[in-house]
## 1
Amino acid sequence: MKRSKFITATAALGGAALLLAACGSGGDDTPVGVPDDPEDVSGSITVWTYPLSTVDSLGWWEPHVETFNEQYPDVEVEIVMQAFQNREEALVTAIAGNNAPDVVYFNPDFIPQYAEEDLLLPLDDLRDDWDSAFIDSSLEAMTWDDTLYGAPLLMQIMTSYCNTEVMDEAGVETCPTTWDELRDAAPQIHDAGYYPTHYAGTGTLNHSYYLYLWQAGGEVLNEDLTAAAFNSPEGLEALEFLKEMADEGWLPAEPLSVSETFEQSEAGQGNVGYIMGANLGEHRTTLDSEIKEIVPPMSHVEQVASGSVGAWSIFNTTDSPEAAQAFVHFLSDEEFIAEFISDSGFLPPREDVDADAIFADDPQTAEGAQYLDTVRTGVMHPQAREMIDTIRPHIQSVLLQGADPQDALDAAEQEVNALLERAG
């Protein structure tokens, strides 16, 4: 899908961008790519990373920086371990203070807003194996306006599974993998005293309504990202399916309106038959892995799983662009990613990193790796978060108050289009 450019991002980021434009060294003259001779690369770079599972200390990074310096001895790398809490505020403050990092760990929703402010260095020419070695969905998640702005480091997939104890007691022999199979199995599971599945009404729509919308073959926005597209036959089918499940009592009522931890939830208590998307690590703390049957992502018209991608981006205001690119090239090499995945437990964005071998003792995690090409991370748009906040109350009005699905989509479409018009 072509991603069109927009004029503005957030006001805070816009102000910071003006400071960087005035004081930074980036721009059209920033070299793109890494010189063939490492001796031609020098400079000092600061890298902001975050606790990524068990990779949460500077000690983990030290030997990897040393390995990099064996090839690039004239590059000084400072790794700064940041906190996820108030992550965006800290970055905006650093930008406003003309103290932005050279390299930063980003998730997909950061890319549009910073790319729109012309703060990121394009990475399309950084490697010659993007298309041959990396999973397409990992690159798509880091692409804006047909330009790659993030070098993928890791992927996550929300894993689908059945609670086999629930399914056995309900007499359901096959864990559902399609809407029709879930609809057929639901009455038996419900009659046995369990919930067929669940829906998190207060969380991000990337893992809830959008997921059903994409599976129905719909999209949140039109192709050039200028107008809402979810008010469509596909969007209506998705919302009507959710309403059907809510009306039939197939969904626990509490998470429709209240955020709860997994251990407090009906799913965490072992009372839900099918989980469409789960963080396996979190779910294992409460629910025994032995009763989980991992299945392919849910499909209807399309097979789609929710998940995320983590990647490295470079601010184009760096004083050492070639050094920053050399380090990001190193961080996206097969060998480094294999070591990172092995130590952190995430899934690899590179197809040549053998997840089956890394997770030989954890077949449930390894199985998820084969479905990474079905992962969609969200809507690539500077106003993606505002759109979620705009649409969510209308979805909840259907599930909690019995509002008409078409009326809800009509109202949400009007508000989202107004939001998009104000933005650009």
## 2
Amino acid sequence: MREADACQASPDGAPGRPSEADVESVLRHSAELLRPDLPAFTEGVVARVRAVSAYYGDPTLPPPDLARSALTAFDAFVAGLITPDRVAESGDHAWAVGDRRGREGVPLQTLLDAYRIGTTGLWDALVARVVRESPGRVATMAYAAGDVWRRADGDVALVVEAHRRAMARPPSAGGGPRHRPVLQALLRGHTHPAHLSALAQCPGLPRYGRYAVVLLRGPGVRPLETESGYEVRNGVELYWCPQDDGVAIVALLGARPLTALGALVPVGAHTRGGVSTVVTGLAELGRARELAELALGACRSDGELAQVGDRLSRAFALTRPDLAGDLADQVLGPVLRLPPADRNELLTTLAAWLDCDGSTRRAGERLYCHRNTVLNRLRRLEVLTGRRLAHPRDVVDLAMALEAQWVSTPPDIRTDAGP
């Protein structure tokens, strides 16, 4: 049949409408033209998805089989256009993808956005090949759009239902660590509605609640405390999320105090930990992670789990190390310019006196010296700095400067001086 005869009256009498056979023929023709180019086409679509999606664009969140799964999906869809007997393959793959991504915790809206981008790209590619190779059939191709999008809508419906069923299964029934990918995004500061809505489907993760973040870092950190990445300890729900340089733990505290985490998250040798303040919802997990990072930086030694609320002075200094150096020099300059042994002796004595609430007796016991020795060292420090420990404002200056000195000193020459 000549291409000019391809368009004829449809059964309902609409002039110029091609027959169903002609539509199937042009779709088969365009699919055959596209199929050899599917690997390169898929690569372009995946790049587009990564560019427009905050989730897929994150280097750590997308599933590792994203490109392979996309190629399989496109191949199955195109195969169904070429061979009617294979039309069910696309739906089978769509169901498998929906189930797998649901178990992995990929947000449904993110998945649907990827399908929309993929279908749009596929249709454009099919049309482009007809325009290039068979321009006389472009009019017929226009009527094929409805058939392509109906098939795509059918696949999307299967994706949605499979994803819904996977999310509805409890973790013990094979749901897996569904929380982890989206928690990773929220810990990085992403607060896209798709991430929050995905977590709303995860059992035990209310959008609003008393949350805290713990960061563990060091060669002694195990990648995951539990296989599933989730456990309940003494009424506190802990969600373990691997990081590039350690582990982050999102704690849903309920009515438990923040201090309970000290006993629930033990820190072993060669490990340091930082605990944020309490935040009131999932959207604040990014801020909580930043606070936990500050607390981690304020740790004095391995084996410590520091709460940022107990290290606010040092946390302030950590946020502006340039100003910390200026403050330390302004208040403690004469002390810092002493020979190392004298300098460390005075700074360590000041730190012990502050830790002991201004008690020279207890500071002496800590330093293994007489209280009069502590008094003599403190008087020397007062003379050098021009500050008086009997004046509250001067004590604040000295305490802040001591923290600033610790922050601005290279780690390899730090002492334990510091409140």
## 3
Amino acid sequence: MAVIKASNADINLLARLMRAEAVGEGQLGMLHVGAVTVNRARVNCSDFEGLRTLPQVIYQPNAYEAVEHGMFYQRARESEKRLARRNINGERRWPAKYSLWYHRPPGDCPPTWFGQPLVGRYKLHCFYEPIQGECDEVYSTF
């Protein structure tokens, strides 16, 4: 069962984003990017207040480098659409399970990212959860 409303166009949009942001990190890396994106659409706090749909989250200014720099405009393949559907249906895995931010630094993961604590790293991306009390709704079950 979907945890957010998503049309076929939304699934395609999420799949394109996942591919652009993390294709080099395989299916699990793309699932992590999808989980963070779905988490942002589920919460109504912090940087994501008032963003309730995938297009609003994905096109938020300065939210995703791939959208800003053009790789996002490659078409999504069916394999990426299947991954996007898994995220929309609630699949979330550590370290992205409760994360609202991720970052790809040139070296080690900073212990915080704009004040948010590091949760873990998957390949080249570092994942950050909100500080306690700031966006606790991300921890809710579906």
